[in-house]
Amino acid sequence: MLCSCLSQALAVLVCTFQRYSKQEGDRFTLSRGELKELLEKELPSLGDEGAFEELLSILDANKDGEVDFQEYIRFVAVACTLCHEFFVDSPVVLPRGQ
Ligand SMILES: [Ca+2]
Ligand SMILES: [Ca+2]
């Protein structure tokens, strides 16, 4: 089945969360370790240990020590906004389907 880029991107966003969130503890939330692994493997450009601590404190809006799906999606929205601002003056280059 041929899917649009956007629906594929949405599936990747959701599946990436689920792949890491089910590894330990509550399978619907990212523990500290799960979040760290997700960021290291999926977003290695995001930075060092200090950046991780800061990011965790921002992401964990309700301060329960875990990042739930709502908190993750808020992060994705912020990341998308940054991408939007970054690419806004660039020529449009869409990723090609494989
Ligand atoms: Ca978990
Ligand atoms: Ca939380």
From TrEMBL:
Residues 47-82 form the EF-hand domain. This is Protein S100. It comes from Chelydra serpentina (Snapping turtle). Keywords: Calcium, Metal-binding, Repeat. InterPro entries: EF-hand-dom_pair, EF_Hand_1_Ca_BS, EF_hand_dom, S-100_dom, S100/CaBP7/8-like_CS, S100_Ca-bd_sub. CDD domains: S-100 (cd00213). GO terms for molecular function: calcium ion binding; calcium-dependent protein binding; transition metal ion binding.
